[in-house]
Amino acid sequence: MDYLPLFHSLKGEHCLVVGGGEIAARKVDLLLRTGALVTVVAPTLHERLQGLAEGAAINYQDRCYRSEDLDKKVLVIAATNDACVNETVSRHAKQRQLPVNVVDAPELCSVILPSIIDRSPVIVAVSSSARSPVLARILRARLETLIPAGYGRLASFLHGFRQQVQTALPSLKERRRFWEKIIDSPAAEMVFRGQTEAAKQWLEAALSGADHNPPGMVSLIGAGPGDPDLLTFRALRLMQNADVILYDRLVSEAIIDLTRRDAERIYVGKQRHFHALRQEEINNLLLRLAREGKRVVRLKGGDPFVFGRGGEEIATLAEKGVPFEIVPGITAANGCAAYAGIPLTHRDYAQSVVLVTGHLRNGTVNLDWQGLVQKQQTLVIYMGLSGLSAICKGLRSAGMPADMPAALIAQGTLPEQQVYADTIAGLPERIAGKRIHAPTLLIVGEVVQLHDRFRWR
């Protein structure tokens, strides 16, 4: 090990930064976040540092570096573009046995600054021992996805119970097992959601040794339109901690593969003329699994509150007092439009967006055609493939011009995505005889003409 990682308390301590450029400004920002008292010595200042100096956030010395600048300092950073100055600062600091960091010159450093994941009071530092700063930054970025922002709140919450746990569990081994159990329990999720009182009750019941078998929890998660890269960090973490996964046909295989390997997976998909489970059965299944104390993830394509019937599923849980949470996802309108290069709004073409479902009922599409035909409006129609001809006819009958641009997007955001762009008059004929696989999305409006210019896939 080339370096010993240390976390240095700098609150109220005097630190020196030599240099006034952009890099120096970044180092100053970092030091200020720790509560350090920062002195900057430089003939000129970066705009960011000028603002800090004017606001008295830093002590600015408008001149070149002098050795006496090191007096009463506990940390020194050299960030000039003059190698001779940097070497001098390093030599002087080492003579005084002061920790010194010289930007991009590891041979002059006695300490190095790592890439930081700040979830205060939880702090994670990643270092390549100054050999590859870019690699360290990439590793930090990957770790960012695995460490929720709520971990800081969780650390503070658990700290408040340390003495209570130490009194109740005198054995170090017992305490370690207890904390491991709590951190992997519903109490942690409660803290993440800001429900600290419920988390406190859960923890105290567990600590008392009472017969504590609380209900599980249901996480209703929007899985997005298909591309797994569009999942939120929160969705991914809950998927990898779940005991049971319920998913529908709009959730791609790539997303299912990201769920916990040993979790039970239950298909509850629906498609035209076939339902694996009726909606009422899905609602009751969620209720039963949660009451068994399981962490249940219900994955729905797109966003659960946009034509996802999410409201119906949580209504039963809310009525029965079972804990649940909603994790929004990127709805198909946003995802598919973006991947097809079609902005839903644009200053020159559309100032509003309307989302409707084109689902057939009794062989017909029942929509407010007149209300849908408005100037400078984008119309997004979910589940409109089977009723496409009727939809285009209905819009034209309400006064929409026959040459209004329209696009049908099939399997949007996936590698198999296809976009059929035409007009409302020509689109039905354009797709006639083609084997188009669901899910599909229909976009109608002037913005569709931007597809050829903006498409990137």
Strand order of the largest sheet: 3-2-1-4-5
Task: Report the CATH C-level class of the largest domain.
Answer: Alpha Beta
> How far apart lie the N and C ends?
45 Å
- Strand content is 15-25%
Q: Looking at CATH, which topology of the largest domain would you report?
A: Methyltransferase, Cobalt-precorrin-4 Transmethylase, Domain 2
Outline type: flat
Main beta sheet: 5 strands, parallel
Overview in brief:
The protein has 457 residues and is α/β, with parallel strands linked by helices.
Describe what you observe in this structure:
It is a single chain. The chain has 457 residues and is of the alpha/beta class. The protein folds into 4 domains: 14-113, NAD(P)-binding Rossmann-like Domain (Rossmann fold, 3-Layer(aba) Sandwich); 151-208, Helicase, Ruva Protein, domain 3, CATH 1.10.8; 217-330, Cobalt-precorrin-4 Transmethylase, domain 1 (3-Layer(aba) Sandwich), CATH 3.40.1010.10; 333-454, Methyltransferase, Cobalt-precorrin-4 Transmethylase, Domain 2, CATH 3.30.950.10. The chain has 18 helices and 19 strands. It has a 5-stranded parallel beta sheet with strand order 3-2-1-4-5, sandwiched between helices. Strands 10-9-13-8-14 form a 5-stranded parallel beta sheet, sandwiched between helices. A 5-stranded mixed beta sheet has the order 15-16-19-17-18. Helix 12 (279-291) packs across helix 13 (310-320). The protein starts with 13 loop residues before the first strand and ends with a helix. The model has no long low-confidence stretch (mean pLDDT 91).
